[in-house]
Structures are given as C-alpha cells and as structure tokens.
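Narrative of accomplishments. A recurring question from our advisory board has been how the design workflow behaves on a single, concrete structure rather than in aggregate. To address it, we present the structure tokens for one chain from the evaluation set, followed by the sequence designed for it. No filtering or post-editing was applied between the two.
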C-alpha cells in the first residue's frame, strides 16, 4: 500500500484495519518491531508500547493517507487519559470508518 494513494470509496473495517496496520508497521519499524501482530483488539500502549511521539507520527501518516477527514489529535482530545491508555486499534478503525463515511455524506 502506498500511503499517498486515495483511500477506498467505501471504507470498511477490514480495509481500514489493513491500512492502519501498514501505517503502524511503519512507526514500529523504527524500533525493529515491524513483525508484531496487529488486530482489532491490539492496544497502542500495552501491546505496541507506543509513546505519545509515536501517536504524533501516526497522526501524520493518517493525514497523508486520508487527508483532513481523519484527525487523530481531535479524536484523542475527546478522551480521558485512561481511555487513551486503553485505546485499541479497533476503536481507531471504527473512528476512521465513521469519519470517512461522514465526510463522504457531507
């Protein structure tokens, strides 16, 4: 997948999970952890051990992939600290699918 390719017209949880997995592997490759299993229940903190700077990197990659339609910082800003610590890949996938569908309708 090329992050600069346009996102699919009809995003599904499966296609977005595949995209996010590739983006996460890009972030994790800096640590040599690009072979980790990523699925809907994978947590950013406990399973992937991502730091806040890694979330900033991920936010940039998400914007490259989906444009302004997906704003990770805005998504995280609406959460309590405990929610961010327990954030799963699945919850991010649901947010991305929701964002893409709502911007298409608008």
């Amino acid at each position: 997948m090329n992050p600069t390719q346009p996102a699919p017209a009809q995003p599904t949880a499966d296609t977005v999970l595949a995209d996010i997995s590739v983006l996460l592997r890009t972030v994790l490759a800096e640590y040599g952890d690009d072979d980790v299993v990523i699925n809907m229940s994978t947590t950013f903190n406990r399973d992937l051990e991502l730091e806040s700077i890694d979330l900033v990197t991920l936010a940039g990659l998400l914007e490259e992939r989906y444009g302004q339609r997906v704003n990770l910082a805005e998504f995280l800003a609406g959460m309590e600290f405990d929610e961010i610590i327990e954030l799963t890949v699945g919850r991010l996938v649901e947010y991305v699918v929701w964002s893409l569908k709502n911007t298409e309708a608008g």
